[in-house]
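Much of what follows relies on a compact textual record of a protein's fold. Each token is a code from a learned vocabulary of local backbone shapes. The record below shows the convention in full.
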Amino acid sequence: MNDTVIKVENLSKLYYLGELHHRNNSFRETVTETVKRLMPSAKRKTNAPMGSAPNSIQSSQEDDHIWALKDVSFEIKRGEILGIIGRNGAGKSTLLKILSRITKPTKGNAWINGRVASLLEVGTGFHPELTGRENIYLNSAILGMKKWEIKKKFDEIVAFAEIEKFIDTPVKRYSSGMYVRLAFAVAAHLEPEILLVDEVLAVGDIEFQKKCIGKMGAVANEGRTVLFVSHNISAIQRLCPQTILLNNGNIIINGETPKVIEVYLSSAVKKIDSFVDLTQNNMGKSGSDSFRFTKCWIINSRGKKTSTLKYGEPFSIGLEIESPRSYRNLAIQVGINSFDGVRIFTSDSEEFGFLFSVTESSKVAVTVSYEDFSLMPGQYQISKLMIRNGQHELATLLDVGSFEVLPRSFEDKSPQFVKTGQIVGKSLWEIH
């Protein structure tokens, strides 16, 4: 018996720049088309290819389009959990939308053998005017479940989502976290053969994320298949034996998760030398076009720009900011991650009473210093820069640059002990 449940061959997706501005489809039309694509899987298992679009692709010489996916091929067998990682814009979500039959591929085929449940965006598949109870029944019917099957699973879904008090409230009044809890509970408990999960779990709290990861593992142990897209490298490591790394729509590597993560982390963030030029980095950029980060650098305890620090050495992060407009009362935020994607700490200038101003057509340099704790030896990322004016976010930049904390040298005669964790801070010890 062939255990392959997903087979993707030379899958490609082309988007024309600005095409969304030329489309006049209403929300109703979009929903109608999506439902039509979902209907076959509501009545029976699917075992058919998603065919290529008409051969009307213009020459790749043109500069008015982008390939979100390009000649992607892989297979997934029954009961496997496959992770998909990559930077923003790598093509991860596009791939899941094609497998979910929300969008059509431009070229290539994807065969799916089984009933698919997808969790792609907050609230996808929910009718905002219907209650949580009604949406459970609606989504179950779309998946082709009988009424008695839905009743059997109903209490389990509600308990998992932790929304008992709000089950008869229209979902348009739900918070994003409530949306995600209910959406995941529905997708995971209605016994699909294939579960597709995008990054939306990041909206939930930590405890719920842990519960979701455990549930996805249980789903796979029951012989069902999970395709999991995430930026959370730790979650990918815990859950997925095999992982695909996507970049610019292409598969860079498909293999055992530790090796794939090693390739991803070694190439994902460029190392900071004297400084990193942020004008060439548009990944994760958002907010006002009038404001941007232009440079970032690390300063060691001797005042030198560097990409390597000694263990226990105080350091600073310098930022150059450019704005063509005048602003007052700006706050800035810096996030530092370990190299496996775990947030170590976040510094927010407003918490320490630091707000600043910029004048029109100016550049300013801002420095934040860290002296009261030490990072353990290893690789680290400046994973996020964000600047805001009150609650209004002006600009955000992700995956800024990396630096390294070196272990003490053998010539260092100061006490050294085996430590675990990632931060060493000052401690006060007493005996009574």
Summary: The chain has two domains: 4-114+193-268, 276-409. The CA atoms of residues 90 and 247 lie 4 Å apart. The radius of gyration is 24 Å.
